[in-house]
Amino acid sequence: MTPAVTDETTLLAVLAPFAAAVAAPFLTKWFKHNAAWPLAVVPALIFLHFAGFVAPVSEGQSFVAAVAWAPSYGVNFSIYVDGLSTLFALLISGIGTFIILYAGGYLKGHPQQGRFFSFLFLFMGAMLGLVLGNNLISLFIFWELTSITSFLLIGFDHLRAASRRAAIQALVVTGGGGLILLAGFIVIISATGEIEMSVLLASPDIIKDTGLYVPIFILVLGGAFTKSAQFPFHFWLPNAMEAPTPVSAFLHSATMVKAGVYLLMRMHPLLGDTALWTTVLPLFGGVTLLVGTILAVRQTDLKLMLAYTTVASLGLLVMLTGTSHEKALEGAVLYLLAHSLFKGALFMVAGTIDHEAGTRDIRYLGGLRSAMPITFGAACLAGLSMAGLPPFIGFIAKEVLYYGTWGWPEFGLLITIVAVVGNSLMLVIAAAVAIKPFFGPAVDTPKHAHEGPVLLFAGPVVLSVLGFILAVIPHTTGVLFIGPTLSSLIGSFTEIDLHLWPTKINAPLILSLITIGTGIFLFTQLDKLRVFVARTLTAIGWGPDKGFDQAISGIVSLSSAITRVVQGGKMQTYMALTFLAAGAAVLVPGYVGGGWPAMPKMPIYTFYEWSIFLIAVLGLISVLVAKTRLTAIVSLGIQGFAVALIFLLFGAPDLAFTQLMVETLSVVILALVMTRLNLSPRDHRNGVSTLITGAISVSVGLGLGLTLMAITQQPFDRRLSDFFTEYSNSIAYGRNIVNVILVDFRGIDTLGEIAVVALAGLCVLALIRVHTKKTLPEDEGIDQSETGAKKEAV
């Protein structure tokens, strides 16, 4: 079905958060402690706008809208609205509304609250642009913008070293993955000739038929795995908990960490259901699921426990997406929705506990249910959904995903075992977060614990209750949200019928009972389990997180070593490296590509033409054998004058005049500068140095000569010459074509060149006006050899 064209209001909805980011600091200043309420209107209106797409999208429709951005490159700011993008847009804007409110309460009175709101809105806009992006290049721009804005949010408390490290780590990992993804997009565009996602999805086999499926698959996975923290790139996500809790709640529930999962789901019709896809994704997703849950058990910080379970949940989603089995994909979509709701609620609960009790460590929390009853209720509801217990959306998701893994004909038994182990440990963390801080005897906390304001508990209450409501109306949930999203994943419209309660005893129900029983048992042994995991990890030693530090340290050391070589403070080294690079640039391509020119026939020259060549050769010999710098400078000018005479003899008087002026001024300026520096005999060089510099000089001269010969042997293309001949007089009113080109057709370039020459002249003037005797302390008893060295340095 061809996508319908929606109006430009949808484009404005994507851009609205960026406008709100500009206004946020001013509104915060005007409304002071109540700025969150008017600011939350923006994501709420965006949510209502995309809610209007739910009904038509549920019937199988899709929509596109576009405006030209860089039309000469085929880049448009275009969006594609279907089931998958609608679900993500609703989660981003809906949860984002409560995150804005929550941030208003959490950072109340913070001097940089306005700046924080701006960063949040930029982050929100970047994610909306990503999940709605239709043009591959514009999608990549928003993809990288999420990395930049998350860097700003994670490093918000920039005075803390831990925050700065976490922000840099997230930027390096996700930004580097983004560059890999860009390479993948470029290959897709080059191989298919298409740049719009909607066009690619209309021909699902277009990438598989190009012969470049494997490199495209690897490059796309490089971007998705780094963004969604798949093993071994999982380490950056828990460290991002250094950000304020509103960032953690938004980042883990509906935004950046699910961007990689979104990309894999979006690309499933194009890349999925192949042997490579159904092997690599379940493997890495399953490992990430187990690593995340095991590392979560070790933690005692509420945010870190939730962060590692997010890593595990992302692994579960990647594993299910990798099966390409329709029922497993349905379970992935359900779990995506359930996870967004319960994880957003639980992160805000953890932040509220920290805000009102002064700590997030579960070892020093207890008995908070009477002091924080509303927060306790939200934690219980969200925790039950995370544990996969009825009657919550998390239970339905677990049932469906078990149905999908058990029915997968490839490695169904293996990934079912992995899913059961992971979900059992997920139940342990859900119980720990929802039970331990609120039950047991009251504990003296750093702050007197009490219920937070409405801004802090509104989000957890609404999101946790939604997890219950969506479960008790499963048919409506399936028709409006799950079915359309699943249709986007499989590439064709499909309808599903969800049920809250199993209609019979089957494998998924038995697996759920095993998961619940195992999880309850492990929860009773949580302290012992934590000690065991900690000892095991200590015995293993350092992991990817410390490996990242070592990699960065190695890069810094390597760059420092290279800098000491190429930027050692010696002009000779700088010049040698510069000309070495120039020689390689002109010689290597000819050697590799075999593009050497044919040896031309020697023309017949007159005696005065030979005399000019002889003068040039004599000037070259004079430069080489000159005893002083002044002699070398004057001898060097002979070369330029000889070239000017050649221009004059072969019918280019304007070029000859320019060359004469340049050479005259060069010799005069160099002589004036050198008189202010040192005209003593030239530096002595040993044989090795002379050989190296001579070889570099010959390579540059030979390379440039061969390049010019190769160019002149190509057929002459007169199109540009004819253009200037035809239009120089009629358009620019000038008969001297060279002058017209310089002044009119290349006027801006010429202006830039004049500016460079003028700046160089000013620098020369500054050198000439240096009074060496006044700046060097020669009359203070300093050794004259040292003074000479200082003069040489000047």
TrEMBL record:
<keyword id="KW-0050">Antiport</keyword>
<feature type="transmembrane region" description="Helical">
    <location>
        <begin position="604"/>
        <end position="625"/>
    </location>
</feature>
<feature type="transmembrane region" description="Helical">
    <location>
        <begin position="656"/>
        <end position="679"/>
    </location>
</feature>
<keyword id="KW-0812">Transmembrane</keyword>
<feature type="domain" description="MrpA C-terminal/MbhE">
    <location>
        <begin position="695"/>
        <end position="770"/>
    </location>
</feature>
<keyword id="KW-1003">Cell membrane</keyword>
<keyword id="KW-1133">Transmembrane helix</keyword>
<feature type="transmembrane region" description="Helical">
    <location>
        <begin position="116"/>
        <end position="133"/>
    </location>
</feature>
<feature type="transmembrane region" description="Helical">
    <location>
        <begin position="505"/>
        <end position="523"/>
    </location>
</feature>
<dbReference type="InterPro" id="IPR046806">
    <property type="entry name" value="MrpA_C/MbhE"/>
</dbReference>
<feature type="transmembrane region" description="Helical">
    <location>
        <begin position="304"/>
        <end position="321"/>
    </location>
</feature>
<dbReference type="Pfam" id="PF00662">
    <property type="entry name" value="Proton_antipo_N"/>
</dbReference>
<feature type="transmembrane region" description="Helical">
    <location>
        <begin position="374"/>
        <end position="393"/>
    </location>
</feature>
<feature type="transmembrane region" description="Helical">
    <location>
        <begin position="574"/>
        <end position="592"/>
    </location>
</feature>
<feature type="domain" description="NADH:quinone oxidoreductase/Mrp antiporter transmembrane">
    <location>
        <begin position="134"/>
        <end position="416"/>
    </location>
</feature>
<dbReference type="InterPro" id="IPR001750">
    <property type="entry name" value="ND/Mrp_TM"/>
</dbReference>
<feature type="transmembrane region" description="Helical">
    <location>
        <begin position="691"/>
        <end position="711"/>
    </location>
</feature>
<feature type="transmembrane region" description="Helical">
    <location>
        <begin position="454"/>
        <end position="473"/>
    </location>
</feature>
<dbReference type="Pfam" id="PF13244">
    <property type="entry name" value="MbhD"/>
</dbReference>
<feature type="transmembrane region" description="Helical">
    <location>
        <begin position="168"/>
        <end position="192"/>
    </location>
</feature>
<dbReference type="GO" id="GO:0006811">
    <property type="term" value="P:monoatomic ion transport"/>
</dbReference>
<feature type="transmembrane region" description="Helical">
    <location>
        <begin position="274"/>
        <end position="297"/>
    </location>
</feature>
<dbReference type="GO" id="GO:0015297">
    <property type="term" value="F:antiporter activity"/>
</dbReference>
<feature type="transmembrane region" description="Helical">
    <location>
        <begin position="35"/>
        <end position="57"/>
    </location>
</feature>
<feature type="transmembrane region" description="Helical">
    <location>
        <begin position="212"/>
        <end position="237"/>
    </location>
</feature>
<feature type="domain" description="NADH-Ubiquinone oxidoreductase (complex I) chain 5 N-terminal">
    <location>
        <begin position="72"/>
        <end position="117"/>
    </location>
</feature>
<protein>
    <submittedName>
        <fullName>NADH:ubiquinone oxidoreductase subunit 5 (Chain L)/Multisubunit Na+/H+ antiporter, MnhA subunit</fullName>
    </submittedName>
</protein>
<keyword id="KW-0813">Transport</keyword>
<feature type="transmembrane region" description="Helical">
    <location>
        <begin position="750"/>
        <end position="768"/>
    </location>
</feature>
<keyword id="KW-0472">Membrane</keyword>
<feature type="transmembrane region" description="Helical">
    <location>
        <begin position="77"/>
        <end position="104"/>
    </location>
</feature>
<feature type="transmembrane region" description="Helical">
    <location>
        <begin position="333"/>
        <end position="353"/>
    </location>
</feature>
<feature type="domain" description="MrpA C-terminal/MbhD">
    <location>
        <begin position="615"/>
        <end position="677"/>
    </location>
</feature>
<dbReference type="GO" id="GO:0005886">
    <property type="term" value="C:plasma membrane"/>
</dbReference>
<keyword id="KW-0830">Ubiquinone</keyword>
<dbReference type="Pfam" id="PF00361">
    <property type="entry name" value="Proton_antipo_M"/>
</dbReference>
<dbReference type="InterPro" id="IPR050616">
    <property type="entry name" value="CPA3_Na-H_Antiporter_A"/>
</dbReference>
<dbReference type="Pfam" id="PF20501">
    <property type="entry name" value="MbhE"/>
</dbReference>
<dbReference type="InterPro" id="IPR025383">
    <property type="entry name" value="MrpA_C/MbhD"/>
</dbReference>
<feature type="transmembrane region" description="Helical">
    <location>
        <begin position="12"/>
        <end position="28"/>
    </location>
</feature>
<keyword id="KW-0406">Ion transport</keyword>
<dbReference type="InterPro" id="IPR042106">
    <property type="entry name" value="Nuo/plastoQ_OxRdtase_6_NuoJ"/>
</dbReference>
